[in-house]
Amino acid sequence: MSVPRAIRQAFLAIEQSEGAGARVRRSIGTHKLRNFSPFLMLDHFTIGKGAGFPDHPHRGQETITYLLSGGVDHEDFAGNKGTIGPGDLQFMTAGRGIMHAEMPRDNPDGSPNVGMQLWVDLPEKLKMCEPRYRDLRAEEIPTATTDDGKAVIKVISGQSHGVDSVRDLAYTPVWILDVRLAPGGKVTQMLPKGWNAFAYTLSGTTSFGGGSTAAAQKKMVSEFHNVVFEKDGDFVHAENGADAKEEARFMLVAGQPLDQKVVQHGPFVMNSQEGVYQAMVDYQTNSNGFERAKGWNSEIGKRM
């Protein structure tokens, strides 16, 4: 018999400044939610003209960027460059070292560029792998539909109602689903056993939970909240009220926990203090993966 996952906590992601002129709602990687393996950080970002994330390094993690509106250019010291638009994703594995820039497009109508960026830890044995990028375009993402069309799920990574994602894009196993519920819509989503899972609400009001135990009772959650689920259980249930004035939309994310220590200093995520110190030294001396950082300046970073 399948068991629903109870809600461990639900909290509002407070907007704050980040980078150069960007605004983010950070919900993972704060005092509210740390050590939620394999997830290190979750930012819901808004970046307008004259703002962005100019040249900066990474080591030891993967970043997954999902653009909701607008456009973001990226460029790194290995010559990789490109643009993601609405509904596109970029999966970046920093591995042993990357230096790159992420800068917003200037939209003709003056609207900001909005998206989600999730930082995922790398297994210790892959911390020093070669860096890589994979882009996933909006038109490549399959869609699952249930509840007579009132529930629509974009299967970015993982499985939903008989629909599989295109391919695994991250080294650490992660499921990412973009769920929209019309008024009166509901969805029951199975998740891998033992994986950590959360939902981030993007719009509307969603009712999560439902079960015979008090812990699994329904909870109404408005936009910009992170809903963290208990590890026990087989599925997450969500509904949008029949009298709702708008659709409810949320990201449902699950990941396989890594049994390892996390030591993070800014953009460097390793398994020990010594590893972080070595990353800082390697970056400062342009060595051991950061050789190409010497004298490198991105073209897109010059917009600042």
Automatic annotation (TrEMBL):
Gene Ontology MF: a single term: metal ion binding
Cofactor: binding details: Binds 1 Fe cation per subunit.
Alphabetical keyword list: Iron, Metal-binding
Cofactor: Fe cation
UniProt-listed SUPFAM superfamilies: RmlC-like cupins (SSF51182)
Domain Pirin N-terminal: 22-120
Binding site for Fe cation: 56, 58, 100, 102
Domain of life (superkingdom): Eukaryota
InterPro entries cross-referenced by the UniProt entry: Pirin, Pirin_C_dom, Pirin_N_dom, RmlC-like_jellyroll, RmlC_Cupin_sf
Domain Pirin C-terminal intervals: 177-288
CDD domains: cupin_pirin_C, cupin_pirin_N
Protein family according to the UniProt entry: Belongs to the pirin family.
Protein name: Pirin
